[in-house]
UniProtKB/TrEMBL annotation, chain A:
GO CC terms in record: ESCRT II complex; late endosome membrane
Record protein name field: Vacuolar protein-sorting-associated protein 36
Source taxonomy: Eukaryota, Metazoa, Ecdysozoa, Arthropoda, Hexapoda
Protein purpose: Component of the ESCRT-II complex (endosomal sorting complex required for transport II), which is required for multivesicular body (MVB) formation and sorting of endosomal cargo proteins into MVBs.
SUPFAM superfamilies, A to Z: PH domain-like (SSF50729), Winged helix' DNA-binding domain (SSF46785)
Any one of the GO BP annotations: protein transport to vacuole involved in ubiquitin-dependent protein catabolic process via the multivesicular body sorting pathway
Assembly and binders: Component of the endosomal sorting complex required for transport II (ESCRT-II).
Signal peptide location: none
Cell location: Cytoplasm; Endosome
From TrEMBL, chain B:
Main localization category: cytoplasm
GO CC annotation: ESCRT II complex
Membrane-topology annotation of the record: Peripheral membrane protein
Function, in words: Component of the endosomal sorting complex required for transport II (ESCRT-II), which is required for multivesicular body (MVB) formation and sorting of endosomal cargo proteins into MVBs.
Keyword Protein transport among UniProt keywords: yes
Keyword Membrane part of the UniProt annotation: yes
Highest rank taxon of the organism: Eukaryota
Subcellular location: Cytoplasm; Endosome membrane
GO BP, sorted A to Z: protein transport to vacuole involved in ubiquitin-dependent protein catabolic process via the multivesicular body sorting pathway
Designated name of the protein: Vacuolar-sorting protein SNF8
InterPro entries: ESCRT-2_cplx_Snf8, Snf8/Vps36, WH-like_DNA-bd_sf, WH_DNA-bd_sf
Length: 393, 250
């Protein structure tokens, strides 16, 4: 019982709430104590006990750090009339310089916790899990004061030449290896340790990049990893909407927001297959079907999102910036004609850095709108500014 | 102790420095090896989790993002549904996932093949990038054809062209976005207005197939003229470049 400390009934940062139970009695060894009928909270680093109502109000309570626990077992009941269950917690020696607690000295090295009003959680499993995870180690590492002291100790221990450095590196690797294998034991554990694992995976890949330029030779894997890294946090899903229209509208908004930059980068136009791949990579596991994608993209022009869907005469569909619409294109092409005197499709393609087919299409559109005239010759078709429009006489 | 002066001391110092340097590289090599190993562990684990716990991962919003971050840094594909009984009937994510992966391979390789790839090569690359476990490897050309049907809704921008004898060619870049012809023209400009397949292959580093395709298209469109009298190989001339060439010579 002398391992208990006084504490605020508040979880510190990084500490995780695991379970809560009422009507709990504590035993010092086998003997009864005055701590009965209270509330018990188990976190990832401590067991807290408080008088009824104290813990929710954040008042003073007593707590037992989990690192004292050596073994937990359930006491076998001889008469099982009540729903009460009892657990025995074997504890290690009290640490030096520990904060004050309710009992200064005890002859027993174990305590019992009795759940008088029944037990609704898997106490044994949770504690054992917490003991395995050893969350307090990570917590003490993050708190600044203890980090400094550990660092000092480490420096002293390792400041001994190359062998020291090698040992240090070795230990670091070992620790990483261990935490990786621990994290991947099952999904719930990986979820708990996800933040650390993300950090480790990043540091591994940066190190490898530094050394050999990239994580792999395979260009597909490189591209995949690039696309995945542009993920979106909260993909719009069909399930979140009661009606179809709303779903497609929000989807269209999200897509437009996400795609505007990449489309600008590739020159204002992106084929739908390309869009489909990028969108789904960014969404990760929330796949979007081609049909839904098309429906959302069709809405973009009416919602004025800066992007719109376009189908070429050839049958290819692309998503393009809205300012690439016909009137803008005609205007720009007419200006280009004026500047250069005359242009063929190939010349325009070279000037604008677009495909020949697209350049030709643009010139023909300009012609259709009366802003260009053609000159057909052996060298192909050339386009000139329509002087009938601009010259008065 | 006072340091000894003279040639011997300098030699010794040099030797020491070299030893330190060797040790340094050794440690670095070691560390790199360790990192590579850890990455392998990470990769297998992530692949495993992606295929086993897909739905649980999907449900947890925060973790989903974290999982994706991990996949991104290690280069693992989170889409790892196996081909099940239902996928044959078109139900489930398998073919949709495959279609995303197909486009991905096409885009990733388009810088060197101009958006044209044979189905066999596509399959090889896709399997390689997908993952190491057996279910990732077990993908047939038929699966790929089936998956690419899902992309038909995007029109002619993404097409699978049958070549006969069970061979297929996948075209992922629509003509409107195809920069090949512009590149050929540029190359021809630097070559006095004419160019041949071999020239293109050596200048632009393309494959024969890609070069021929580009030239034939321009021939059809009337952008290029063909000269069959060249004893070595056919040459293509670009009338639109004649004026520019004449001007530069005069």
């Amino acid at each position: 019982m002398d391992r208990f400390e006084y504490s605020d009934a508040r979880l510190v940062q990084g500490e995780e709430f695991l379970m809560r139970e009422n009507g709990v009695k504590l035993y010092d060894g086998d003997s009864k104590t005055t701590f009965e009928g209270g509330e018990l909270v188990v976190s990832s680093t401590r067991i807290l006990w408080g008088r009824p109502g104290d813990i929710p109000r954040g008042q003073m309570c007593i707590c037992l750090p989990l690192f004292y626990i050596v073994l937990v077992e359930e006491e076998q009941r001889t008469f099982s009339f009540s729903s009460s269950r009892k657990f025995v917690l074997h504890l290690s020696e009290p640490r030096q310089g520990k904060p004050q607690g309710p009992v200064t000295w005890s002859q027993h090295s174990f305590i019992k916790i009795s759940f008088k009003e029944g037990l609704h959680n898997d106490f044994l499993g949770l504690i054992q899990n917490a003991l395995m995870t050893r969350a307090w180690e990570r917590l003490s590492l993050t708190s600044p004061s203890s980090t400094a002291s550990i660092q000092n100790m480490a420096d002293r221990k390792w400041r001994s030449g190359i062998v020291g450095i090698e040992r240090k590196i070795e230990e670091k690797h070992k620790a990483t290896d261990e935490s990786i294998s621990l994290a991947f034991q099952d999904l719930s554990r990986l979820m708990n340790m996800a933040k650390d694992m993300v950090a480790i995976s990043r540091s591994i890949s940066t190190k490898i990049r530094e050394k050999q330029g990239d994580i792999t030779e395979d260009e597909t894997v490189r591209f995949k990893s690039y696309l995945l890294s542009l993920g979106i946090d909260d993909p719009v899903t069909r399930g979140a909407f009661s009606n179809q229209t709303e779903y497609f509208q929000s989807l269209a908004r999200q897509l437009a927001q996400m795609l505007e930059e990449p489309i600008k980068e590739v020159g204002g136009m992106m084929s739908m297959a390309d869009v489909y791949c990028r969108v789904n990579r960014a969404r990760g596991l929330e796949l979007l079907s081609p049909e839904d994608l098309m429906s959302a993209c069709r809405l973009m022009s009416t919602l004025q999102l800066g992007l719109c869907l376009r189908t070429f005469d050839s049958g290819a569909t692309v998503l393009q910036l809205s300012n690439h619409n016909d009137s803008m294109i005609v205007e720009n092409t007419a200006v280009a004609l004026e500047e250069n005197g005359s242009l063929s499709a190939t010349e325009l393609a070279k000037i604008l850095g677009i495909s020949v087919l697209l350049a030709k299409e643009r010139l023909l559109t300009t012609e259709k709108q009366g802003r260009a005239c053609r000159d057909e010759s052996l060298e192909g078709i050339r386009f000139y500014s329509n002087l009938f429009l601009t010259k008065e006489e | 102790m006072r340091r000894r002066a003279g040639v011997g001391a300098i030699h010794k110092q040099k030797l020491e420095q070299e030893k330190y340097r060797d040790k340094g590289t050794e440690i670095q090599e070691n560390q790199f090896e360790q990192m590579t190993k850890q990455m392998e562990v990470f990769r297998t684990n992530l692949e495993d989790f992606a295929s086993k716990h897909k739905n649980e991962i999907r449900k947890n919003v925060q973790f989903r993002r974290q999982f994706q971050d991990m996949c991104a840094s290690i280069g693992v594909d989170p889409l790892a549904s196996g081909k099940g009984f239902w996928s044959v009937l078109g139900i489930g994510d398998f073919y949709y996932e495959l279609s995303v992966q197909i486009v991905e391979v096409c885009i990733a390789t388009s810088y060197k093949n101009g958006g044209l790839i044979t189905m066999d090569e596509l399959r090889k690359r896709l399997i390689q990038a997908r993952g190491r476990s057996k279910q990732h490897q077990d993908i047939s050309v038929d699966d790929l054809l089936c998956a690419s049907k899902k992309l038909r809704i995007f029109g002619n921008g993404f097409t699978v062209l049958p070549m006969g004898k069970g061979q297929y060619l996948v075209q992922s870049v629509p003509g409107e976005l195809n920069m090949d012809h512009t590149a050929i023209l540029q190359a021809a400009t630097d070559n006095e207005g004419h160019i041949s397949c071999l020239d293109i292959q050596s200048k632009l580093g393309w494959e024969l197939e890609r070069a021929q395709r580009g030239l034939n298209y321009m021939l059809r469109e009337g952008l290029a003229w063909i000269d069959t009298q060249n004893p070595k190989e056919q040459t293509f001339w670009f009338p639109s470049l004649f004026a520019a060439c004449v001007n530069s010579q005069s």
